[in-house]
TrEMBL record:
Organism: Cylindrodendrum hubeiense
3-octaprenyl-4-hydroxybenzoate carboxy-lyase-like C-terminal domain boundaries: 333-463
Name this protein carries in UniProt: Ferulic acid decarboxylase 1
GO process terms (BP): cinnamic acid catabolic process; ferulate metabolic process
EC numbers for this chain: 4.1.1.102
Domain 3-octaprenyl-4-hydroxybenzoate carboxy-lyase-like Rift-related span(s) in chain numbering: 125-326
Length: 506
C-alpha cells in the first residue's frame, strides 16, 4: 500500500479521493514511493521536473528532509504529469475524473463537457472529517519551520502553494469560489501571492475590500482529484465549483467548517491553511518559473499578504506540488485541458459547429485547436472570413479567452489531440494572411512571454484565428485524399500487408 485509506475511502472513486487516486496509480505501476530522504531545497522539484520531462511515474516523497515532528508533510510530485505507460498517456488525467486509465483526449473533454449539461449537485455539510485530526492555532504556527520546497534555482522564494485549492466566498456567502493560484512563503505566519482582479478570487476580494475588510480564505491540499481539476477550470462567474464537481462525480462533495472562519472545506483533504488576505498589506513575490517554460530572473511583483491563523491536517499529510516549466505539467494537463472543455461548451452554446477542442501540451496553454464538423459548417452557408471572425469573437470574448491567444480551426479529418495532424493541417491548408484573422480588442494574460516582453502595436497584443480549412470546404465537399497507408490503399491490401508484415522480413 502506498497510502493508508480510511474505510469510507475504499468505496470512493479515484475522482473523489486523493488517497484512492494514489493507490490506483500505485497498483497500475504509475507511481513510485520514495523512502530515501530527499531535500525540499531543489532536489524534490528537480526529481519532479525530470519525471514530467520523461513522462515517468509520479513520485510520492515519504521522507522529506526537515519533515516536522507533527507529520507536516510528505510531498506528492507531478501528480498530473503525462505517463509513458503504453496506451495510458493520460492515466492521471483520466483518474481525476474516474475514467478508465486508457481514456483518450476526446473522452476526457467530452466527460467534462457532458457534466456541464447535468444539474449541479450541491455540497453536503458534515460535522468533521479526517482533516480535523490535528490542529495548530495562532502562535503554534511557524511556516518557516516546514519543509516548503524551493522549486527552481532562479525563483524568488519557496512556494508552498502550487497545486492546492483556495476557497473564498462573497461577504454574503452566496458565491463560493474554489480556484488555484500560487503563493510563496513570506514569514512565520504569512504567504504572499498574486490575486488577479479578473479571476473570481480577485472579484470576491474586491467585494471584501469595498467593505474595508480582509478576505477570509482556506488553502486546501489533497482535495478530491475532481475538485482540483475544476479549481483550475475557468467556469462562469457567480457559479459554485462545488455543484459542478458533484455533477462530475455523481456525489456531493463533503465539506466541513473551518476553525477560524465560516468557510467550508473538503472534509477529507490532507492539509488546510486558514487565514485572511490583507486588504492593504503587500510584499514582494516571485519570480517563479512559469507555465510557458521560461523565467525572467529578478522580476518580482508586489502582491497581497495571506495571513495564516490555523492549520488542520490528517495523519501523515501529503502536500501536492506542481513544478511549472517545460510541458507537460499540471498547467497543461489541468488548466489548458479544462479551458479547452470550457471553450467547447461556449462554442456549442453559441451554435457553432465545433465537435472537439484541445490544447496541445507542447503549446504551453497557448494554442487551442477547434475541430469543425464540416457537414454542419456547409449547412451554415457561411464563408471563411465570417466564420473565423465569429469563432474569434466567441472564444476571445469569453472568460477563458483572456488566457487564449491562438486558435486553430481544423476539419474533422484532423485529430486535434495529435500534434502531427495539427502541424500538417496548419502547414498545408492555412495560407499566411488570407486564412489568418487578427484581433487586438481583447486583453491577454500578462504572463504570455511576448505580452510581458514583446512589442505591442494594437490596442492589446494580437490574438489570431488560423483557419486550416480550404475556402471550398465552406460550400461543398472538396475532392482530396490523404496520401497515407491508411487512406490511399485498398482496405484488403492493407489487411494483407499487416498480416504478412513479419514474413516480408520486417
Ligand atoms: C497548476 C495550476 C496552477 C495555476 N496557477 C495560477 C496562478 O498562479 N495564478 C493564476 O492567476 N492562475 C493560476 N492558475 C489558473 C487558475 O486556477 C484558473 O484560471 C482558474 O479558472 C481561475 O479561477 P476562476 O475560474 O475562479 O477565476 C493555475 C492553474 C493550474 C491548474
Amino acid at each position: 500500500m502506498a497510502v493508508t485509506l480510511l474505510p469510507h475511502e475504499i468505496t470512493k472513486s479515484s475522482a473523489e479521493s486523493l488517497r484512492r487516486f494514489i493507490q490506483e496509480l500505485h497498483e497500475e505501476n504509475d507511481l513510485v514511493v520514495i523512502s530515501a530522504e530527499v531535500d525540499p531545497d531543489l532536489e524534490v522539484a528537480a526529481i519532479a521536473r525530470r519525471v514530467y520531462e520523461t513522462e515517468d511515474k509520479a513520485p510520492l516523497f515519504n521522507n522529506v528532509k526537515g519533515q516536522h515532528p507533527n507529520g507536516l508533510f510528505r510531498i506528492f510530485g507531478a501528480p498530473v504529469g503525462a505517463s509513458r505507460i503504453p496506451g495510458k498517456r493520460f492515466i492521471r488525467i483520466a483518474k481525476l475524473l474516474g475514467l478508465p486509465s486508457t481514456a483518450t483526449g476526446q473522452e476526457i473533454i467530452h466527460k467534462l463537457n457532458a457534466a456541464k449539461r447535468l444539474p449541479g449537485i450541491p455540497p453536503k455539510e458534515v460535522s468533521s472529517g479526517p482533516v480535523k485530526d490535528f490542529k495548530l492555532l495562532g502562535d503554534e504556527i511557524d511556516l518557516m519551520a516546514l519543509p516548503i520546497p524551493f522549486l527552481h534555482q532562479d525563483d524568488g522564494g519557496k512556494f508552498l502553494q502550487t497545486f492546492g485549492m483556495y476557497v473564498v466566498q462573497s461577504p454574503d456567502g452566496s458565491w463560493v469560489n474554489w480556484s488555484i493560484t500560487r503563493s510563496m512563503l513570506h514569514g512565520k505566519r504569512s504567504l504572499v501571492g498574486p490575486v488577479m482582479p479578473r479571476q473570481d478570487i480577485g472579484v470576491i476580494r474586491q467585494m471584501w475590500k469595498d467593505k474595508g475588510q480582509d478576505m477570509p480564505f482556506a488553502l486546501c491540499f489533497g482535495v478530491s482529484p475532481a475538485a482540483i481539476m475544476v479549481s483550475g477550470m475557468p467556469i462562469p462567474k457567480g457559479t459554485n465549483e462545488t455543484d459542478y464537481i458533484g455533477a462530475l462525480t455523481g456525489n456531493p462533495v463533503e465539506v466541513t467548517k473551518c476553525e477560524t472562519n465560516n468557510i467550508r472545506v473538503p472534509a477529507d483533504a490532507e492539509i488546510i491553511f486558514e487565514g485572511v488576505v490583507s486588504n492593504s498589506e503587500t510584499a514582494s513575490e516571485g519570480p517563479m518559473a512559469e507555465y510557458h517554460g521560461l523565467i525572467f530572473p529578478g522580476e518580482s511583483k508586489q502582491c497581497p499578504l495571506f495571513k495564516v491563523n490555523a492549520i488542520t491536517y490528517r495523519k501523515d499529510p501529503i502536500l501536492l506540488i506542481c513544478v511549472t516549466g517545460r510541458a507537460p505539467e499540471e498547467s497543461e494537463t489541468v488548466w489548458g485541458l479544462t479551458q479547452a472543455a470550457e471553450v467547447l461548451t461556449i462554442c456549442q452554446d453559441a451554435g457553432l459547429p465545433i465537435k472537439m477542442v484541445w490544447n496541445p501540451f507542447e503549446s504551453h496553454c497557448l494554442w487551442f485547436i477547434l475541430q469543425v464538423d464540416r457537414g454542419e459548417l456547409r449547412a451554415l452557408n457561411t464563408n471563411m472570413k465570417d466564420f473565423s471572425l465569429k469563432v474569434g469573437h466567441t472564444v476571445f470574448g469569453s472568460k477563458p479567452g483572456f488566457y487564449i491567444p491562438k486558435v486553430y480551426l481544423v476539419g474533422d479529418d484532423i485529430d486535434p489531440t495529435n500534434l502531427k495532424d495539427i502541424i500538417w493541417a496548419s502547414a498545408t491548408r492555412c495560407q499566411p494572411r488570407v486564412n489568418e484573422f487578427f484581433f487586438d480588442q481583447y486583453p491577454n494574460i500578462g504572463l504570455i512571454p511576448y505580452v510581458s516582453h514583446g512589442d505591442r502595436i494594437g490596442q492589446f497584443h494580437y490574438k489570431v484565428v488560423r483557419c486550416c480549412l480550404f475556402p471550398e470546404e465552406f460550400s461543398h465537399e472538396l475532392e482530396w485524399r490523404e496520401a497515407s497507408f491508411k487512406n490511399n490503399y485498398p482496405q484488403e491490401l492493407q489487411n494483407k500487408i499487416e498480416r504478412q508484415w513479419t514474413t516480408y522480413g520486417f
